[in-house]
Structure to design on (170 residues):
């Protein structure tokens, strides 16, 4: 036997999981590969993918028969990250200072951010508060990952003025 296997691989799309990885097997891309004496071994040039692989690239599917003949087929694999960050926030209190202005401590608001690849940006709808913001306010936190998956969460920010008035008598 000197006939190599006829390998037929199809293009495929795979999705990253919560740990930022995905795997692919020969069976995932096989489209009826055959050999006159039967296929003995199959494998791919690349079987595991991660955050750095997002996009489309080529890979090779290989099949080998029991006589040692090897056939191959090039296919495209598209790696996609559709998992948005997981975000939890706390409510917080902002105290106004002597000038009537207070600043949100963003580290006190963020409980956690979990992301399978990496975070690109964290945005807060408001960081500075004044007397006009006294009482309950809604803060919007927007977290975007490097593949543009976005999570938006809200929490309450309480603005208080704890400074006693300075009254001068004449």
């Amino acid at each position: 036997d000197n006939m190599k296997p006829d390998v037929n691989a199809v293009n495929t799309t795979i999705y990253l999981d919560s740990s930022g990885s995905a795997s692919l097997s020969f069976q995932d891309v096989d489209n009826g590969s055959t050999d006159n004496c039967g296929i003995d071994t199959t494998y791919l040039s690349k079987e595991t993918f991660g955050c750095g692989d997002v996009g489309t690239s080529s890979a090779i599917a290989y099949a080998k028969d029991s006589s040692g003949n090897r056939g191959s087929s090039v296919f495209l694999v598209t790696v996609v990250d559709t998992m948005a960050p997981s975000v939890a926030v706390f409510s917080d209190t902002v105290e106004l200072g002597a000038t009537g202005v207070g600043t949100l401590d963003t580290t006190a608001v963020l409980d956690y951010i979990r992301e399978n690849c990496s975070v690109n940006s964290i945005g807060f709808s408001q960081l500075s508060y004044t007397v006009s913001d006294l009482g309950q306010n809604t803060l919007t936190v927007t977290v975007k990952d490097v593949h543009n998956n976005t999570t938006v969460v809200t929490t309450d920010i309480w603005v208080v003025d704890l400074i006693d008035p300075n009254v001068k008598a004449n």
About this structure: The two ends are 113 Å apart (CA to CA). DSSP finds two helices and 14 strands in the chain. Residues 116 and 126 are 27 Å apart (CA to CA).
